[in-house]
């Protein structure tokens, strides 16, 4: 379900909870006890969750803009009605402040949702509609609503009353997700493949290491000891935000000596936060960097190697002009090394991994941003992917796809 659909469903859940409690309370009655109040909320919580889910059952997996408008058209009115009915309650005295906050949050949420729908009148795509839910106003209303819900849930729990209203603490989840990424880096730098793998779901391992194929977890885990620890990771920047399914963590780190920016999707899997997906983001080149254009073809790199010097950081801007998948792997090699011997060795002596990128298809591009100026010496740019036209799947490097580069 789309993230915004889920957000509105959560609003509807509390809407139903409010209406349900009204049904259990008369205007002139004494305040409800905490247990009775929360019990009524819990009962309607379950009923409303089913009702909200049913309301979205008819929406296609890939909805049109008209589907979205129809699905959300009545939500502002529903939220306002819920706030009206919630305001009529006689809650336990100790919950009066929480109820007031919840009523205000519902009204603000309704107004924010109404603004989204009004501003989306000219939207022609679903993406344009959903982009409006990232506005400062909508996000603030969403946060206030979540906070009011969480306050009520936590108060009940602190007083020995079980309550699960479906609200979560975004900051708590985000902090735990960020720590999980820190743990991933620690496991990588310690070459601890088992600890590293334990921080990924099956889908996460496929997203990061599957190279576009739905490989079994066991196969990927068996491969990890060969790569985990190859080139130290050092985080420069990290941030996170709560999502409907968990949290997204955006990180800028140095892998080997290459700057990478990635957005990881994490979920709470039984108390352990794990990577469930990955998206590669663009990296801003360091000030004064030299951009070197690299054409990747079968089976050679086309570039002006004289541009690669120790005077400034280097950005390798690769373009796949061939017909197969290619990638760029950059390494420092000994001055007297024989390229063929390095390629034939599982653990060549004196080779320092600078960094590399994921395979990318014909017609697309890839950028390697080297964080600091290179030291003078000898380097190699290599593509190790297999030749898909060769029954033996000979790596491209063995067919000449190696650039021998001297940096001065």
Mean pLDDT, as a whole number?
Answer: 84
Give the overall silhouette: elongated
What is the rounded distance between the termini? 54 Å
Number of domains: 3
Compute the CA-based radius of gyration: 27 Å
Structural class: alpha+beta
Number of strands: 12
The H-and-E topology, N to C, reads as: HHHHHHHHHHHEEEEEEEEHEEEE
* Poorly predicted runs: 1-27
TL;DR of this structure?
The protein has 408 residues and is of the alpha+beta class.
Features:
Immunoglobulin-like, Nuclear Transport Factor 2, Chain: A, 40% helix, disordered N terminus, 4-stranded antiparallel sheet, 8-stranded mixed sheet, 408 residues, alpha+beta
Q: What topology does this entry show?
A:
Blueprint: H1 3-23, H2 34-56, H3 65-72, H4 75-86, H5 96-119, H6 126-131, H7 136-158, H8 170-189, H9 193-197, H10 202-209, H11 217-223, E1 233-242, E2 247-255, E3 258-269, E4 272-281, E5 290-297, E6 300-302, E7 314-320, E8 329-333, H12 339-344, E9 352-356, E10 365-370, E11 377-382, E12 402-407
Parallel strand pairs: 5-7
Antiparallel strand pairs: 1-2, 2-3, 3-4, 3-10, 5-6, 7-10, 8-9, 8-11, 11-12
Helix pairs in contact: 1-2, 1-4, 4-5, 5-7
């Amino acid at each position: 379900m789309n993230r915004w659909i889920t957000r509105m469903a959560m609003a509807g859940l509390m809407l139903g909870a409010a209406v349900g409690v009204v049904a259990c309370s008369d205007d002139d009655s004494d305040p409800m006890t905490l247990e009775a109040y929360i019990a009524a909320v819990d009962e309607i919580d379950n009923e409303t969750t089913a009702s909200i889910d049913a309301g979205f059952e008819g929406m296609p997996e890939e909805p049109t803009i008209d589907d979205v408008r129809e699905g959300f058209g009545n939500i502002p009115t529903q939220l306002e009605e819920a706030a009206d009915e919630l305001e009529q309650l006689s809650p336990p005295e100790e919950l009066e402040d929480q109820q007031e906050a919840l009523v205000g949050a519902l009204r603000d949420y309704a107004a924010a949702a109404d603004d989204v729908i009004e501003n989306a009148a000219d939207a022609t795509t679903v993406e344009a509609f959903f982009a409006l839910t990232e506005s400062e106003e909508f996000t603030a209303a969403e946060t206030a609503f979540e906070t009011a819900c969480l306050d009520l849930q936590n108060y009940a729990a602190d007083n020995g009353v079980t309550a699960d209203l479906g609200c979560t603490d975004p900051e708590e989840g985000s902090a735990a997700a960020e720590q999980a990424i820190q743990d991933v880096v620690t496991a990588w730098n310690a070459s601890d493949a088992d600890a590293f793998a334990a921080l990924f779901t099956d889908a996460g391992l496929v997203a990061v290491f599957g190279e576009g194929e739905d490989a079994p977890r066991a196969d990927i885990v068996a491969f990890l000891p060969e790569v985990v620890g190859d080139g130290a990771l050092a985080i420069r920047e990290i941030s996170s935000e709560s999502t409907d399914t968990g949290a997204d963590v955006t990180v800028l780190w140095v892998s080997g000596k290459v700057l990478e920016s990635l957005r990881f999707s994490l979920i709470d899997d039984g108390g352990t936060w794990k990577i469930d997906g990955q998206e590669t983001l663009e990296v801003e080149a360091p000030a004064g960097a030299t951009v070197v254009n690299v054409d990747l073809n079968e089976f050679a790199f086309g570039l002006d190697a004289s541009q690669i010097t120790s005077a400034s950081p280097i950005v390798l801007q690769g373009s796949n002009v061939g017909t197969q998948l290619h990638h760029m792997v950059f390494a420092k090699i000994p001055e007297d090394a024989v390229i063929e011997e390095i390629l034939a060795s599982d653990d060549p002596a004196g080779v320092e991994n600078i960094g590399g990128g994921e395979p990318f298809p014909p017609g697309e591009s890839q950028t390697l941003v080297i964080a600091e100026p290179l030291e003078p010496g000898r380097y190699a740019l290599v593509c190790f992917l297999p030749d898909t036209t060769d029954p033996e799947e000979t790596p491209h490097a063995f067919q000449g796809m190696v650039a021998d580069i001297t940096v001065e």
